[in-house]
Amino acid sequence: MKKADVFVISALVAICIAFLFLFYGTNEGTYAEIYINNQKQDTVFLNKNIKKTYESENGGKNTVVVKNKKVYVNFANCKDGVCIKSGKKHKKGEIIVCAPHRFLVEVH
Amino acid sequence: MSFFKTLNNKSGNSRKNSNNNNNNNNNKSSKQKIYNLTFYAIFVCLSVALSFLESLVPLDFIAPGVKIGLANLSTVFLIRQDKFLGAVGVNATRILLSALLFSGFSSLPFSVCGAILSFLVMFLMQKLKIFSGAGISAAGGFMHNLGQIIVSLLFVPVSVLKYFPFLGLAGIFTGTVIGILTDICIKRLKK
C-alpha cells in the first residue's frame, strides 16, 4: 500500500461516514410523551406550538410548552424547578423530569 | 506469469514443428493470437467461477445485494497489468455469463452501470501510476456501488439512498481486500 492509496481510501470512507450522518445523524424528535406517576398521560407533537398544564396527584402543576419544534417546561410549582432549568429539548431520547411531581416528558 | 509463458512457448513450439519454413512474422502474430485467446479464456473462467463462489456467500444483512466482489479480482488483475481492453472484454463476458447462470437478468442493468463506472475510475487511477492495487480496487468497489445506487434510483423510491453509506463502506472494504489480494497474486505469478 502506498501513501496515495491510504489517502484515497480514507477520503472515500470519510464521504461514506458523512453520508451516514446526513441520513441517520438527524435524530430530531417528532413528538413528546408526557408521563405522570409512570403512566402515559398525553402526547404532544413538536410541529405544533402549544401550551398545556398538567396536574399530578399531589397537587403539583407543570406547564409544558412546545415552540419552534422544541419542548420545555416554563412553569412548575415545586421548590427546585429542575424541570425548568433543564431547558429546551428536541432530540430523540431526551427527557425532562420533575421528581417531586413524578412528572416526565420524553421526546420520541 | 511463468505459467502463461510456458503456455505461450508450447503453442509456439508445436507450430514451429508442424511447418518449418514458415514466415516468422505471421507465426509471431498467430502465436500472439493463441496466447491472447487462452489467456483471456482463463480469466473469464476464473471470474465466472469466482462469481459462483461469491453467490454462495450471503451478505444481505448489510444491505440488499451486497457481494464480496471476488469476481473483480480478474478485472483488477488485468487493469494492474495495463491490459485495459482485455479487462473490458473479460468483465463484459463475466457479467453476461453470471447474469445468465446465477442472478438473472433483472440485476443486469445494476451490474453493467456499476461495472462501467468502476472501470472508468480504475482505468484513470492506473494511468496516474501513483496508486497500488488496494487504492485502485477500493475506489473501484466504491464506484461500483455508487453506479448501482444511481441505477436503482430509476426503479425504486429515493429512500434507497439510505443504503448508500453502508454500500459504499462495504465496497471500500471488499475493494481494499481484493486489491491487496491482486497485488499478492501478481507478485507470486511474476516469480
**CATH topology (level 3) name of chain A:** mini-chromosome maintenance (MCM) complex, domain 2
**Count of helix runs of chain A:** 2
Mean of pLDDT of chain B? 81
Number of domains of chain B: 1
Distance between the termini of chain B: 7 Å
Distance between the termini of chain A: 46 Å
Overall residue-averaged pLDDT value of chain A: 85
Number of domains of chain A: 1
CATH architecture of chain A: Sandwich
Instruction: Give the ordered list of helices and strands of chain B.
Output: HHHHHHH
Largest interface: A-B, 17 and 21 residues
General description of the model:
The complex is a heterodimer of chains A (108) and B (191). By secondary structure, chain A is α+β, with helices and mostly antiparallel strands. Chain A has one domain: N-utilization substance G protein NusG, insert domain (mini-chromosome maintenance (MCM) complex, domain 2, Sandwich). Chain A is built from two helices and seven strands. A four-stranded antiparallel beta sheet of chain A has the order 2-1-7-6, with no helix packed on it. Chain A has a three-stranded antiparallel beta sheet with strand order 3-4-5. The N and C termini of chain A lie far apart (46 Å). Chain B has a single domain, classed as Arp2/3 complex 21 kDa subunit ARPC3 (Orthogonal Bundle), CATH 1.10.1760. Chain B is built from seven helices and no strands. In chain B, helix 1 packs across helix 2, helix 3 packs antiparallel against helix 4 and helix 6 runs antiparallel to helix 7. Classes of the chains: A alpha+beta (108), B mainly alpha (191).
What's the arrangement of secondary structure elements?
The complex is a heterodimer of chains A (108) and B (191).
Chain A: H1 3-24, E1 31-36, E2 39-45, E3 50-55, E4 61-67, E5 70-76, H2 82-85, E6 95-98, E7 103-107
Antiparallel strand pairs in A: 1-2, 1-7, 3-4, 4-5, 6-7
Chain B: H1 2-18, H2 24-55, H3 72-80, H4 84-103, H5 108-128, H6 133-155, H7 164-190
Helix pairs in contact in B: 1-2, 2-3, 2-4, 3-4, 3-7, 4-5, 5-6, 6-7
